[in-house]
Model the fold of this input.
Amino acid sequence: MSTVLAERVVAPPPLAPRCAVVLLGTGVVGGAFLKLLDTPAAASLRLVGAANSRRQQINPARLADRSLRERLKTEGDARDDAALLAALAASDAVRKVIIDATASAALAARHPEWLARGHHVVTASKAPAGGDLADWRALQGALARGGRYGDSATVGAGLPVLATLRRLRACGDRLLALEGVFSGSLSWLFNQYDGTRPFSALLREARERGYTEPDPRADLSGEDVARKLLILARNAGFALDRNAVDVASLVPESLRMLDAEAFLDRLEALDAPLAARHAEAAARGRVLRHLARLDRHGRARVGLVAVPAEHPAARLRDTDNLFALTTTRYRAQPLVIQGPGAGPEVTAQALLGDVLALG
Ligand SMILES: NC(=O)c1ccc[n+]([C@@H]2O[C@H](COP(=O)([O-])OP(=O)(O)OC[C@H]3O[C@@H](n4cnc5c(N)ncnc54)[C@H](OP(=O)(O)O)[C@@H]3O)[C@@H](O)[C@H]2O)c1
Done:
C-alpha cells in the first residue's frame, strides 16, 4: 500500500443540508429550477421529493438523476402528497421547504396547512395570494402563526417589485398609485402591434414563440394580470376581492365559449376591433398598451389604454414588464421597476432566491 493511500484522511460524513426541498411541478418553471439545483448557488439545498401531476419520486438516488424530469413522465410512484410530506419531515435539514411550481388550485389551497405544519412555502403559483380574498386571509392567518412565504416569482417573474413594495410599507410609506404592464405576452403583442400586421398574425407568432399560454385567451382575458394586481394591492394594504377589479377582456363574447381549437381557428375575429382602436389611438398620437392600474382609493382596472409616446409603457421592449409605484415619498416621480417579466430561467431563479433568503 502506498504511503499516500495509507495516510488518506477519511472523509467526514456529509453535513446536513440547510434546506430540504420538495418540488411540486416539473414543467417549464420546475424544469428550470431542477437545472439550477445542479449549480453551486444551490449547494445548501437537498431535494427530498419531486412530483408532476401523475408521478412522484422520493428515492435519493433517483432524485439525484439529471434526467429526473424526463423520467417522471414515465416512471415513479403514484402521486401522494402524504409521502412527500413524510420525506420532508424525515429530513435532518434546518429548514424544510415546499416549492409550488404548478398552477394547481388544489395544491394552492394547501399552502396554509403546510405553513401550519412548520414548513416554508415558496411559490410560482398566483393562487391563493391572487385568488379569493378568503384564501388570501387564510394564508395571512397561517403566516401570523409561523412559517415564511416566498412569492417573488408570482409577479414580474422575480423582478423585485413585491419586495420593494413591502419594504416601502414597512418604512411607513404608502402606495398612492400603481400602474404598469404586468404580462410578458401582452407586452410583446402591443410593443409589436403598429397596424402593419393583423393582430391575429402577431398572436400566432407569440404563441409559436411560447410567449402565450397554449390557449391565448388565458392571457387576452386579463385574468392573469388581475391576479397579479390583486397580489400587489393586497401587499400594499388594499384588501380587494376579485370582483373589485374592473377587467376589460380582449376576447369578444362570441369567442369566449369555444373550445381552444375552434378559438385558434377564429383568431381573425380579433383583428377588426383592435385595428379600429389602434387607428383611433394613432390619430391622437398615441399607442395601445395593456395596463393594470390601482389608485389610492383601491380602484383597480385592467385593460387596453391609449397612452402618449412619452408614457413609460410606450417605450417598452420585447416581453418587458413595468411597475410604476407612486407613494407618499416617491410622489413627484414614481419609483419604476422594469425588465423581462416572464421566462423559465428568471422565474426559477426567483424561486431559488426565495429559498436562499430563508437563511
Ligand atoms: N412560465 C413562466 O414564465 C412563468 C412565470 C411566472 C410564473 N409562472 C407560474 O409558474 C407555474 C408553473 O408554470 P409552468 O410554465 O412551469 O407550467 P407548466 O409547464 O404547465 O408546468 C406545470 C407543472 O405542474 C405539474 N402539476 C400540475 N398539477 C400538479 C399536482 N397536483 N401535483 C404536482 N404537479 C402538478 C404539471 O404536471 P404534468 O407535467 O404531469 O402536467 C407540470 O409539471 C404557474 O403557476 C405559472 O403561472 C410561470
Observations:
- The chain has two domains: 19-159+345-356, 161-340.
